[in-house]
Amino acid sequence: MKKQLTMADIAKIAGVGKSTVSRYFNGGYVKEETKEKIRVVIEEYNYKPNTFAQSLKAKETKIIGVVVPCLDSTVTSRVLMSLDEELRAAGYTMLIMNTAHDHNLEIENIENLQRLRVDAIILSAISMTDELKKVIESVDVPLLVLEQEYAAGVSIINNDYDAGYKMGKYVADKGHKNVLVVSVNEKDIAVGVKRRSGILDALKESNVDIVDVLESNFSHHKTYDCAKEYFKDGIGNIDAVICSTDKQAVAVMKVIEELGLSIPKDVSICGFGGYETSNLLKPRLTTIKFDSEKLGKIATETILKMIKKEEVEKLQSVDAKFIEGESVYDMN
């Protein structure tokens, strides 16, 4: 097996300058006779250029950094697939950085991407902390925030309040009067504040008698533990549980089933996400699905305009689709 050559090796073997080889790979002017000399060496030694290193030396890297809170989320996966398809069609490559819901790692990832000289950054933010805002302000490449509203910059959000209101109204219209809302910390403005507020406002306007809030996070395990503790003495008067995500809903369903109770006859459960697996649950989960594919498409269109320094809308939103399953009982 022949040893992998460097550009300096190619220059020496071809009898040309290293700068000439560099121009050859970067599309600069090189005489046809010289090009042929370089091509012969490349073919003989099966040289494969480091395209990533090349991009870092170019004015445009054609790489867009994408920072996401996790890689095990169905919604995140949908958004990434849509982004990848749209960006590839535009000639760009994604460089994905996972934060694992760690705020410090989120900031490190943004700073690392800037050092790598990506053309732009798309950030699916965990929450808009003051520290994160300062880092965003210091970034000298276009940066687009997804799924959290960023007043000082450009962001694309899901219409969480309206989605929450729609679900709260649906549960109330089905005659439920004692509702538990499983939410997340209010540091997450999108889900912990706006989605929760939509649910609570709808329940209040519909004169639901009792509304309790149980705070968890986005993980199945944490929600299972929280629900297990909450229902340790049984479900009491609770006749419906509205979860902030389908993953939370699955965890609560497990707890209810372990109590030997029936869904939805004994207690109704619903969520947000519209995962394909939610349709396989027994009973099928009533949920709300955000258009992640559309979010990815709008994000691509927006970030490309930002790279070209074209005017973009400061705030755009994506609507959701209500999916009626079999997990909410009609008590009327």
Automatic annotation (TrEMBL):
Name of the protein in question: Sugar-binding domain protein
This protein's UniProt keywords: DNA-binding, Transcription, Transcription regulation
PANTHER family: LACI-RELATED TRANSCRIPTIONAL REPRESSOR, TRANSCRIPTION REGULATOR, MEMBER OF GALR FAMILY
Record domain HTH cro/C1-type: where: 2-27
Domain HTH lacI-type per the UniProt entry, residue ranges: 5-58
GO MF assignments: DNA-binding transcription factor activity; transcription cis-regulatory region binding
InterPro entries: Cro/C1-type_HTH, HTH_LacI, Lambda_DNA-bd_dom_sf, Peripla_BP/Lac1_sug-bd_dom, Peripla_BP_I
Annotated organism of origin: Peptacetobacter hiranonis (strain DSM 13275 / JCM 10541 / KCTC 15199 / TO-931)
Pfam families named in the record: LacI (PF00356), Peripla_BP_1 (PF00532)
